[in-house]
Design goal:
The protein has about 350 residues and is an alpha/beta fold. It has nine helices and 14 strands. The protein has two domains: about 90 residues, SH3 Domains (SH3 type barrels, Roll), CATH 2.30.30.40; about 250 residues, Alpha-Beta Barrel (TIM Barrel). The strands form three sheets. The chain has an eight-stranded mixed beta barrel with strand order 1-2-3-4-5-6-7-8, surrounded by six helices. The chain starts with 5 loop residues before the first helix and ends in an 18-residue tail after the last strand.
Length: about 350
């Protein structure tokens, strides 16, 4: 394969045009930069930086107990206060909104099947989670009617779904009397809970190979899609283990609300601009002439992952592969889908 040189590509860019909605990367007027992130860290510490990066919504967690190595995960924690002010209040003061996600070892199937060791039964498990979610929502001042999502963070399939359904029925009877219920998980669990009318909001995890994830994405019935994971923002150049640990998310431009609370939701016009600048990789795709200096694990974009196109010039596109607002190199445009509306079937290409 011939490789376009940095010099040749740069000359081509002089004659090309920035994509619609593009402005200075990572700045408040960059309308197509990521607007929604989730992080296990105390986001109040980075609130001003997030606002300057044009982030609008931060997903933060409820959990009934702290977990090892995740001491900042629970947004209601007294340890997350800054000058006596709780984390969500600091975010709102910086014109950021919050989406609440309940996660306490929700990656374990036994949690839903028989409960964890501290509860001993599925019934006691959901009761403990419901109480913690309501108590913590009250503590941080989350207004009733906004959403609390509950994670189902493993590859749910038909054989494992019945205990999950029972969990969400119980959550609906308790938490659902005050808050809208959402689910975070693979395509299968999103579809089934939506069909059973047990959730108002659907958040599709970045589980491209999991059961029905591609199908549910392509159905257009999702509210949120976790498009990138395990990124680092605001750390020193070259220090990939430092900075704010973030996952990034896209809001379906067809929906007006994701159940956020605080300083308002992302407007549809911005969500559309974000959507329009991203594409899926049809196959594992090399990134050529990368600038380097970031936290990229390699120079290839995996199949079905997505990138942001910054500039198109002939057969090549300048791309941001990790949502940090910086160009990482060039990808052949033919290796990308023509838009983000349809995710390619999993395993359809090498």
């Amino acid at each position: 394969m011939s490789i376009v040189s940095r010099r040749t590509f740069g000359k081509g860019l002089l004659a090309s045009t920035l994509l619609p909605g593009h402005a200075a990367l990572g700045q408040p007027n960059d309308a197509a930069s990521i607007a929604i992130i989730d992080t296990p860290h105390n986001a109040a510490k980075a609130a001003s930086k997030l606002a300057a990066q044009n982030v609008k919504v931060v997903v933060r967690f409820f959990a009934r107990k702290p977990q090892p190595h995740l001491r900042e995960k629970i947004m209601a924690s007294d340890g997350n206060m800054i000058d006596g002010v709780r984390e969500p209040t600091v975010l709102i003061r910086n014109d950021l909104s919050i989406v609440s996600l309940y996660q306490y070892r929700n990656n374990l199937p036994e949690k839903f099947l028989k409960g964890l060791e501290d509860t001993g039964s599925a019934k006691a498990e959901v009761a403990a989670d419901a109480k913690a979610a309501l108590d913590q929502a009250r503590l941080v001042g989350q207004p009733e009617g906004s959403a609390i999502y509950f994670g189902v963070d493993f590859n749910v399939n038909r054989a494992a779904v019945d205990p999950v359904l029972e969990y969400f029925r119980a959550i609906g009877r308790t938490v659902g009397s005050r808050y809208a219920i959402g689910v975070y998980g693979n395509g299968f669990v999103n579809r089934v809970l939506r069909e059973e009318k047990l959730v108002a909001y659907n958040w599709l995890s970045t589980s491209r190979s999991h059961t029905e994830t591609v199908d549910f994405y392509n159905s257009g019935q999702w509210h949120l899609f976790q498009n990138q994971v395990d990124r680092r923002w605001f750390g020193p150049t070259g220090k990939c283990s430092t900075g704010l640990d973030v996952d990034t998310n896209l809001q379906n431009p067809k929906v007006a609300s994701i159940g956020a609370w605080g300083a308002g939701e992302v407007d549809r016009s911005r969500n559309q601009k974000i959507f329009d600048q991203r594409r899926f990789a049809i196959r594992a795709t090399p990134v050529e002439s990368g600038a380097g200096g970031g936290c990229k694990s390699d120079n290839r974009v995996p199949r079905n992952a997505n990138v942001r196109i910054l500039v198109q010039s002939g057969a090549w596109s300048s791309v941001d592969i990790d949502e940090d607002g910086k160009a990482d190199g060039q990808i052949r445009t033919s290796d990308l889908t023509s838009n983000l509306a349809t995710m390619p079937p999993w395993g359809s290409a090498s």
